[in-house]
Amino acid sequence: MTAHDLYTRTLSDYKSCLCSSPALTLRSYCRERHVNYHGMCLWLSRHGISIRELHPSSPDMLYGVTITFPDGVTVSIKQGSPFSVNRFIDRYNSKIQEEESCLVELTNKLYQKEHEHCVGRQGWTDKDNLRHRKRYVPQILSEIKRELLRIKSKPDLLPKSEMAGTVDYMLLQWEAIKGIFTERYYYLDNNLVERYNRYISLSRRNSLFFGSHKGAERGALFYSLTCSCRMQGINTFEYITEVINKAAKLPPNTDIKVYRNLLPDKWKENRSRIEI
Question: Shortest CA distance to 110 belongs to which of 163, 187, 183?
Fold first, then answer.
């Protein structure tokens, strides 16, 4: 039997097998029949036959579908109907949304309880805030940790998914999360700092580099003072000018409390008292 006859017969038999096994590949079929796969591909190419054209095109079946979900998980489906594929996608997305919504809901409880009162309003003090935290925090944190451990123990949770990464990160930082509520003045997040860091980023357009490490340290101190002035509603130029003039006249043995009163959060109320 010549190579042409062998490949012609192999092609005919392969087409027949595809009717009963649509997912059968030409490579695996050639391996079973002990036919040279690369020789078969060259023969098909010479005769203008594409391997993809050999598979029956059925509107009711999908083959070789690869799906990447928002959490980073990639799933490959060899064969399935459009209905079954869409149902699988919907069920997977609903499972992720259910787990996410539960964690988000519990986290929102913390913020809602925290925003029930505000230090400085209606006589609410730091001590009142700490007592308030001790009342509502333990139960909510317990629910959050129980939910995290439940998600982590699920057998279908993929290790490299975003949900697994989120759960592992929160459990790793759990003691730090609990530590937020052990003081009366800690914030639940650093959104305030992030907003003020925008001004530092904007200044880098004009001053991208520091000349030395010491210069970088002095620059960090300067940025800290200017952002603190903005938080306190103080004119930065006025503050820097006055503090430099006053600090230059202070004697070497000046009490450190005097310097503390020169910082932006104390400067307004103490500026008239610190006379040089």
Answer: 187
Q: Is the pTM of this model over 0.85?
A: no
Task: Please check the confidence at residue 58 and state whether its pLDDT lies above 60.
Answer: no
Cβ burial 110-139 (10 Å sphere, 16+ → b, else e): beeebeeeeeeeeeeeeeebeebbeebbee
